[in-house]
Amino acid sequence: MRNQHYPNQTATPFASPHPFLAAISAKAGWLRPKVQNAQLSLPLYNSKVPAGFPSPADDHVEQRLDPTEYLIDQADATFFVTIQGESMIEAGLMPHDKAVVDRSKKPLLGDIVLAVVDGEFTIKTLSKQPNSAPRLLPANASGAYAPIDLKGEMQFEIWGVVIGAFRRFR
Asked: Which residues are catalytic?
């Protein structure tokens, strides 16, 4: 299947063993990128750059960096989602960023997670309420986004741990 956002890449529909989650991901049109076996190794320069390019005087490469190897721990359990909204901007997740989600990671308190709450996907920081029930926290001090305190009657599942993100500027 051709990926509509990146026409030069192919993707397969995202599958889930959970019928409910499979239906939601199909409705959302989520795709799992086709994993290429070829490695991409780009230079990672030794100089640390506050803003700009590596110094021309520092012409030696510290190492090579494969972006796939850097971003993905377990390819068959990893997928990307596009960030929508501003509830996690203080965690560095901006609208249109691609979040890297790993379903093989066990979620821990303080992790940023992709969760399903009453049929809606959300990305928030996993916390707990005083009664030890899960709580999902936004990362935006504007006050526009409230924590989600999960209650017994709410449908809730953590779908994966956000292990990274990336964005394009151009």
From this structure: 87, 124
